[in-house]
Design brief:
By secondary structure, the chain is of the alpha+beta class. The chain contains one helix and five strands, in the order E-H-E-E-E-E.
Length: 118
Protein backbone atom coordinates (compact mmCIF):
# COMPACT_ATOMS: atom_id res chain seq x y z
CA UNK A 1 0.00 0.00 0.00
CA UNK A 2 1.18 3.53 -0.69
CA UNK A 3 0.30 6.71 1.16
CA UNK A 4 1.44 10.33 0.79
CA UNK A 5 1.89 13.21 3.22
CA UNK A 6 2.65 16.89 2.59
CA UNK A 7 5.15 18.51 4.98
CA UNK A 8 3.64 21.77 6.26
CA UNK A 9 4.93 24.50 8.58
CA UNK A 10 3.32 22.91 11.65
CA UNK A 11 5.37 19.74 11.03
CA UNK A 12 8.75 21.52 11.31
CA UNK A 13 11.19 21.57 14.21
CA UNK A 14 13.06 24.63 15.51
CA UNK A 15 15.70 24.18 12.76
CA UNK A 16 13.09 24.38 9.99
CA UNK A 17 13.08 20.69 9.03
CA UNK A 18 10.55 17.91 9.57
CA UNK A 19 10.11 17.06 13.26
CA UNK A 20 10.93 13.38 13.79
CA UNK A 21 7.83 12.84 15.92
CA UNK A 22 5.57 13.92 13.04
CA UNK A 23 7.23 11.34 10.79
CA UNK A 24 6.77 8.60 13.41
CA UNK A 25 3.08 9.49 13.70
CA UNK A 26 2.61 9.20 9.92
CA UNK A 27 4.53 5.91 9.80
CA UNK A 28 2.30 4.48 12.54
CA UNK A 29 -0.87 5.74 10.84
CA UNK A 30 0.13 4.36 7.43
CA UNK A 31 0.83 0.91 8.88
CA UNK A 32 -2.41 1.00 10.91
CA UNK A 33 -4.48 1.84 7.81
CA UNK A 34 -2.93 -1.13 6.04
CA UNK A 35 -3.71 -3.45 8.97
CA UNK A 36 -7.34 -2.31 9.13
CA UNK A 37 -7.81 -2.70 5.36
CA UNK A 38 -6.24 -6.17 5.33
CA UNK A 39 -8.12 -7.35 8.44
CA UNK A 40 -11.58 -5.72 8.35
CA UNK A 41 -13.48 -5.63 11.61
CA UNK A 42 -10.38 -6.26 13.75
CA UNK A 43 -9.07 -3.83 16.37
CA UNK A 44 -5.32 -3.18 16.51
CA UNK A 45 -2.97 -1.24 18.76
CA UNK A 46 0.69 -0.48 18.14
CA UNK A 47 3.01 -2.49 20.39
CA UNK A 48 6.34 -1.56 18.89
CA UNK A 49 8.52 -0.01 16.25
CA UNK A 50 11.85 -1.42 15.25
CA UNK A 51 14.94 0.73 14.79
CA UNK A 52 14.32 4.48 14.45
CA UNK A 53 17.04 6.15 12.38
CA UNK A 54 16.56 9.23 10.22
CA UNK A 55 18.74 9.15 7.09
CA UNK A 56 18.09 12.61 5.64
CA UNK A 57 16.45 15.86 6.73
CA UNK A 58 13.14 16.79 5.10
CA UNK A 59 12.25 20.32 4.04
CA UNK A 60 9.02 22.32 4.07
CA UNK A 61 6.79 21.49 1.10
CA UNK A 62 8.20 18.01 0.55
CA UNK A 63 5.77 15.26 -0.41
CA UNK A 64 6.58 12.04 1.43
CA UNK A 65 5.81 8.63 -0.01
CA UNK A 66 5.05 5.83 2.48
CA UNK A 67 5.37 2.26 1.16
CA UNK A 68 3.79 -0.27 3.53
CA UNK A 69 4.29 -4.02 3.10
CA UNK A 70 3.25 -6.88 5.37
CA UNK A 71 6.35 -8.46 6.90
CA UNK A 72 4.79 -11.23 9.00
CA UNK A 73 1.57 -12.37 10.64
CA UNK A 74 1.41 -14.23 13.94
CA UNK A 75 -1.55 -15.55 15.88
CA UNK A 76 -2.36 -12.23 17.60
CA UNK A 77 0.05 -9.80 15.93
CA UNK A 78 0.98 -8.45 12.52
CA UNK A 79 4.12 -6.57 11.46
CA UNK A 80 4.52 -4.15 8.56
CA UNK A 81 7.65 -2.68 7.00
CA UNK A 82 7.22 1.03 6.31
CA UNK A 83 9.72 2.71 3.98
CA UNK A 84 9.57 6.49 3.53
CA UNK A 85 11.05 8.54 0.70
CA UNK A 86 10.64 12.06 -0.68
CA UNK A 87 8.44 11.82 -3.78
CA UNK A 88 9.92 13.62 -6.77
CA UNK A 89 8.81 13.50 -10.40
CA UNK A 90 12.41 14.15 -11.51
CA UNK A 91 13.88 11.05 -9.82
CA UNK A 92 13.56 7.41 -10.63
CA UNK A 93 15.00 5.27 -7.78
CA UNK A 94 13.99 7.59 -4.91
CA UNK A 95 16.30 7.09 -1.90
CA UNK A 96 14.77 6.07 1.41
CA UNK A 97 14.89 8.64 4.19
CA UNK A 98 13.47 6.32 6.86
CA UNK A 99 12.31 2.73 7.34
CA UNK A 100 11.15 0.63 10.25
CA UNK A 101 9.00 -2.32 11.24
CA UNK A 102 5.72 -1.54 13.02
CA UNK A 103 4.04 -4.31 15.03
CA UNK A 104 0.38 -4.33 16.05
CA UNK A 105 -1.51 -6.67 18.36
CA UNK A 106 -5.15 -7.58 17.74
CA UNK A 107 -7.52 -6.88 20.65
CA UNK A 108 -11.04 -8.02 21.45
CA UNK A 109 -13.80 -5.70 22.73
CA UNK A 110 -12.49 -6.11 26.30
CA UNK A 111 -8.94 -5.06 25.39
CA UNK A 112 -7.46 -8.58 25.52
CA UNK A 113 -5.24 -10.13 22.87
CA UNK A 114 -7.20 -12.20 20.41
CA UNK A 115 -6.45 -14.19 17.25
CA UNK A 116 -6.32 -12.16 14.02
CA UNK A 117 -7.88 -14.96 11.99
CA UNK A 118 -10.64 -16.03 14.28
Amino acid sequence: MQNYQLVLTEHLNHYGYLFGGALLKWVDESAYICARLEHPGKCFVTVGMDKVSYKKRVELGSVLLFNVEKERVGTTSVTYRVAVSVASPQQDGIPEIFSTLVTFVCLDKDGNKCPING
